[in-house]
Amino acid sequence: MTLELQGIGVSRGIAIGRAHILFHNQPDVREYLIPAFGIEQEVDRLNSATEQARQQLLAILDQIPTNAPTDISSFIDTHLLMLNDSSLTSVPIEMIRSRRCNAEWALQLQRDALINVFNEMDDPYLRTRQDDIDHVVTRIHRILADEQVAEHEIPDGRLKGHIIIAEDLTPADTVLMQHQGIAGFVTEHGGATSHTTILARSLGIPAIVGIESVRRYIQDNEPLILDGELGTLIAGADESITAEYQEKLTAFRAHIASLSRYKTQATKTKDNKAIKLLANADLPEDISLISNAGAEGIGLYRTEFLYMNRAAPPEEEEQLAAYRDVVESMDNPVTIRTFDLGADKTVDGGRHHGPTVNNPALGLRAIRLCLSQPAMFRTQLRAILRASAFGKVKIMFPMVSNQQELLQAKNQLENCKQELDREGINYDHHIEIGVMIEIPASAVCAEMFAKQVDFLSIGTNDLIQYTLAVDRVDDQVNYLYDPLHPAVLRLIHMTLLAGKKHNIDVSMCGEMAGDPRLTRLLLVMGLSHFSMHPNAILEIKQIINETDLTQLPRNTLDILNIDNPFDAESRLEAINAYN
User: Fold this and answer.
1) Could you count the other beta carbons within 10 Å of the beta carbon of residue 474?
2) Which active-site residues does the annotation give?
3) H helix runs in 221-309, sequence order
C-alpha cells in the first residue's frame, strides 16, 4: 500500500532510495550533588568534554574539500565559536562551583536559559539559531555520557544512496552524510531558515522537514521517494509511481546542469524587459557564493551577525572593516540594512535587563531599537558611510512604520554626515537610502514613503507573517502562511505601483523573490529587482529569460481577487504553463 506523508520542502530535488533511520538517543540528564573535594575534578570533566567536542568538529572540517563553498564550513565554524563562548563554557563552570551540581546538569541549565532567549526573538532566522545551541550542547552531553561516535560520523560508505530519516540533524551531520553520498533527508523537526536546511540547499541535498513522528511510519531499509520541492515523502510506491519519479529525477538533474549557461547572460525577458537579480547575504562568507552565482549586487546585507553573542556592540572600526571587505569584494552595489535586532537585545550576551516582553514581535526591535539607542545607531551609520568611500553602498532601514521614524533616521544620518565632514573623512555624499516594506502599515503607506526615499525593498517573510498573523516557524499554524493570499498580493502590488508612480526602484528581498513558482506573477505585477539566496539566482534567471510578458494571460492579475487558496494555486499553474 502506498503511503504519502507531507512536510515542508526546504531543498528542491528528487531522491529515490532506501530509508536509513537515524536514532539520536537523547542523553538522560539528571542532577546530582558533587562533594566539595570533587568540584574541580567535575570542572575538568566538563572542560575535557568540551575539548573533545571541539576536536570532533575540527575533524569534520578536515573532511570538507578545499574547493567547497565557504558557507559550508562556516556552519561548522559557528559551532566551534559557540564552544569558545563564555556563555557555554564559563557560566556552567560557575554553576558547578556555586551549586555543586554535576557538569551535565550545569550545562543543561545554561542550555535552557539560552534557548529561552532565542525563543523570544521575532526574527525567524535568528530564532532558529536555538537549534545550534541544542546541537552543540547535545554533542557535549554525549561525550560526558561516554557514548561512542555516532554511526553517521564513521565514513564507511554505509549511507550511500540512502534517504536519512531523523528527528533532527545538525549541520555537522549534514556535511558528513553528504560526503557519504546520501540521496536526501527527512526530519521531524526543523524550519526553512535553520542552518541545516540552508546547508542542504547549498549542498543540493533534497530535503523535507516537519513530518511529525515520521520514524513511526517508515521502516528501516524501506524504499522511499522524496520530493524536496513539494515536501512529499512516498513509501510503498508501485512501479508506475516509481517510474514517474525516475523520469522527474532525470529531468531535474538535466535541468540543474543546464543552468550554468545562464551565468554570463544578461537578465531580460523575451520581450526585452531588463531585470536585476541581486543576492541576500547573512555573513561575509556568503560573498564568494554570490560572486559565483553572477548576482548584480547585494540587495540585502544583514548586519545582525556583528552584534550577536557578545558583551557589547561592535565599535565603528570593527564595523567599517566588515563593511569595507564586502564592498571591495563586489563590483556592484551593496545594500546594507541597519541592525534588525529583536526586543530581547542579544548584544549583551542574551541578558535582558528591562521588563518582561510579552510580545517581542510587536516590541522594541529594528528601527525602533535603532532610534532608542542613538549612540549604537550612529556608530553603525558612520561605519556604513565611511565604507561608501570604497564602493557603491546603499542604506536600508528595517520595519519603518511611519513617517516620523523615517524622519528621525534620516536626521541621524545627516548628523553623521556633518560629523564626517568636520573630521575630513571621505564618504559618498549622495548615498541612497531606502526602507523595508515588511509590515502592512508601510505597504499601505508606500506612496508616502516613496516620496521620501530613493528606493523601497519588500521583505515578504515578515510582511506575510504580520499580514496574516501567522508565525511561519510554528508547526501548529504555519499551514496558514500563504504568499498567494490576496491581502499579501495586494500589499505587494500597492508597493510596486507606488514605486512606479514616483520613479524609484522597488526590490523584493524575501523568500518570494527566490521562489520559481512566483517569478512570472511578480514580473507581471511589475517587480524588476529580485534579491534572493545566491543558489536561486540561475534558476530565476532562466525563467525570466524564457518569459515573454506579452504572451501571458491578460487576466493574470485577477489572482489578486481570488480568495480560495486552491483556485489561486490553479491560476498560478496556468500562468506558469504559458511558453
Assistant:
1) 13
2) 195, 509
3) 239-258, 286-293
Q: How many residues does the chain have?
A: 579
- What CATH number belongs to 3-23+156-255? 3.50.30.10
Domain boundaries, the chain: 3-23+156-255, 36-144, 302-435, 438-526+534-579
Nearest by Cα to 149 from 56, 27, 220, 26: 56
> In this structure, what C-alpha cell is assigned to residue 486?
490576496
The alpha carbons of the chain give a radius of gyration, in whole angstroms, of 25
Which of 347, 422, 345, 431 shows the shortest CA–CA distance to 387?
431
Which position has the grid cell 523575451?
Answer: 270
Query: The domain 438-526+534-579: what is its CATH number?
Result: 3.20.20.60
pTM value?
0.72
For the domain bounded by 36-144, which CATH number is listed? Answer: 1.10.274.10
| Alpha carbon distance 375, 381 (integer Å) | 10
Q: Note the pLDDT of residue 62.
A: 79
Does residue 22 contact residue 216 with C-beta atoms inside 8 Å?
no
* pLDDT score at 69: 55
Residues 6+ apart with CB under 8 A from 249: 14, 15, 16
Same fold, 302-435 and 438-526+534-579: yes
- β strands within 512-572, DSSP E: 529-532
Write the pLDDT tens digit of every residue in 288-326.
778 778 899 999 999 987 887 677 889 999 999 999 999
Residue 487: its pLDDT value, please?
Answer: 96
User: What is 302-435's CATH topology?
Assistant: TIM Barrel (3.20.20)
CA torsion, ordered 411, 414, 416, 421, to nearest 10 deg:
-160
Residue tagged 517508515 (cell numbers): 218
Given strand 163-166, what is the order of strands in its sheet?
A: 3-6, 232-235, 223-227, 14-22, 163-166, 184-187, 207-209, 8-11
Query: Is 356 a residue whose pLDDT tops 60?
Result: no
What one-letter code names the amino acid at 263? Answer: K
Q: Give the integer Cα–Cα distance in Å for 532 and 494.
A: 21
